[in-house]
Amino acid sequence: MACTCGGELIRLNGTKPDCHAEIVFKKCLRCGSTCCAVLSIYGKAVSWDYQDHLVAQCWFNSLTLNRADELYRSVTALQSVLEVPPES
C-alpha cells in the first residue's frame, strides 16, 4: 500500500502495558504521515482512525488506566447491545 504522496507505508505499533493498550498504525517513510490506526484495550479494538480524524491516536496519547477501563467498558457495552444474536 502506498501513501497519497507516493511513499511506502510501514506497519508500526505502540503499547501502554499499564493501560493494557496497544495501537497499530501505518506510517509513511517519505512524508511521515500516519493512517489506519486501531486502538485495542485488553485485546479488543475500541477505536479507529478514519482519514484525517485521528481518534484512536488521540485516545492512545492521553490514555490512563482509568480512561482505558472506561473506554473498554463503554465500547463493549455498546457492542453487546448492537450485536445481533445468531438464529437458532
Short description:
By secondary structure, this protein is α+β, with helices and mostly antiparallel strands.
Description:
With 88 residues, the chain is an alpha+beta fold. Helices cover 28% and strands 33% of the residues. A 4-stranded antiparallel beta sheet has the order 1-2-3-4, covered by helices on one side. The longest helix has 18 residues, at 65-82. It is globular, with a radius of gyration of 15 Å. It starts with 8 loop residues before the first strand and ends in a 6-residue tail after the last helix. The mean pLDDT is 90.
What would you call the shape? globular
Biggest sheet layout = 4 strands, antiparallel
Find the count of extended strands (DSSP E, 2+ residues).
4
Query: Roughly how many Å apart are the termini?
Result: 41 Å
Reading the helices and strands in chain order gives EEEEHH
The largest beta-sheet arranges its strands as 1-2-3-4
Tell me the radius of gyration.
15 Å
Q: Segments where pLDDT lies below 50 for 5+ residues?
A: none
Query: Helix content range of the residues, please?
Result: 25-40%
pLDDT averaged residue by residue? 90
Which terms would index this structure?
88 residues, alpha+beta, four-stranded antiparallel sheet, 2 helices, 33% strand, globular
Give the topology.
Elements: E1 9-16, E2 21-28, E3 34-41, E4 44-48, H1 55-61, H2 65-82
Antiparallel strand pairs: 1-2, 2-3, 3-4
